[in-house]
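DM from R.C. (forwarded with permission)

"hey, sorry to bug you on a friday — could you get me a structure for this? deadline for the figure draft is monday and I only need the backbone to look sensible"
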Amino acid sequence: MANVGVLGAGSWGTALSALLSDNGHQVSIWSIDENEVKMLNEKREHELKLPGVKLSDNIVITGNLEQAVRGKDFLVLAVPSPFTRGTARNMKPYVSEGQIIVDVAKGIEESTLMTLSEQIGQELPQADVAVLSGPSHAEEVGRRLPTTCVVGAKSKKTAEYLQAAFNSKVFRVYTSPDILGIELGGSLKNVIALAAGIADGLGYGDNTKAALITRGIAEIARLGVKMGGKIETFSGLTGIGDLIVTCASVHSRNRRAGYLIGQGMSMQEAMDEVRMVVEGVYSAKAAAKLAKKHHVSMPIVDEVNAVLFAGKSPAEAVDDLMMRESRSENRTLTWEE
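My reply, with the result:
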């Protein structure tokens, strides 16, 4: 069994800590928030972000970053994406050569357009960086409901090591060498989920939701393949799988924020109401910049940005999507003359 450090004590970090502890690993959870550390130590439960999920007394909860990082067999980086780079930078003195770090957050840095693993690799060149992603709401993982994810790594050895560490009768893990595709699917689906939530807030139906999911994965795959991701990844767990659950689930903070915007709230009001980091808001501008850089059409992403940052009304954004120039669904298919 492994000695594991989990960095970030939000809902996802807490759920994965419980899972890894169930699997027999020795787990330490680190949080930068002293009040969070105190609450978890006293209550053995994250009452705000993951109520009802009790943590084993064997799990160590600490505010000491060195204690959480140094000497661990592998680290799980579970801080929200805007804090990934800063946390990785602070970890640097304690990370050893070849130490495995598996990132489980989802996002793209707007200023550099780097994925999270690229940011971690830049700050911690000595580390072996991997990613874990898929349709996996913390609320359900914490309740031990059957879930599947995929781990991406540079080497098959690292991927299979992490696969074995996380695998259980309630958490099945697949492996993949396509780290970039996994991260793009996991990040960009949050932007599409905002659109799905906005549609729900406007009172639109299942037809609209299905259209957004289907055309959303088309946009994600177009950009992902252009950037070097593999098309198979976008039809898998971190592509269409993660997109479906994030667009449809009551647990999705991105869908929830979009719903509130569709109901008339501003972006900031919606984020304040959700009370957790809404990753899609942070990824939306980056997605639009990547689309422009790689000359890829992403009309849903463009309209989400217009609603979030340019004051466009959600109803007008939907109208403009519906009235775009007519085209073939798939340009690789040709007519037989």
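R.C.: lifesaver. The CA atoms of residues 152 and 177 lie 5 Å apart.
me: no worries. The beta strands are 3-7, 26-30, 45-46, 50-54, 60-62, 74-77, 100-103, 128-133, 147-152, 171-176.
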